[in-house]
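Exercise: predict the structure of this protein bound to NVZ.
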Amino acid sequence: ERKCILTGDWQNDLGSNMTISAVNGAGQFSGLYLTAVSATEKPILVSPLNGSQHVDNLEHPTFGFTVKWSFSDSTTVFVGQCFTDDHGKETLQTMWLLRVKAKSMDDNWKATTVGTNVFTRI
Ligand SMILES: CC(=O)N1C(=O)N[C@@H]2[C@H](CCCCC(=O)O)SC[C@@H]21
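Solution:
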């Protein structure tokens, strides 16, 4: 069957790149995320990510990871699944929640955005 281990380099349709390190026996991994876009005006810097994927059944595993942005007070969580097409091409179909820091509780309602995004290997 077609296995999908997330280790490696990925790019999404915004042009953001991520590198995922070795996935350990428990499915845990870390990595680095370089976003091509940002909600802040601050200079973009590489940011750390940590997450885990299912490794018990490597057929189209689900995963999740968190990016703690190094250049802003925001955090993004990604959740998704790895699919492999008939030619062996892998894609990560994800949804994400970006939480930016709200100035006060009054701004809490508008501090989380959601989106979908697809990653392919580079
Ligand atoms: C994959 C995807 O859609 N995104 C991506 O690659 N970059 C943007 C956001 C970057 C946030 C940077 C930190 C900040 O602006 O405070 S996370 C969701 C979106």
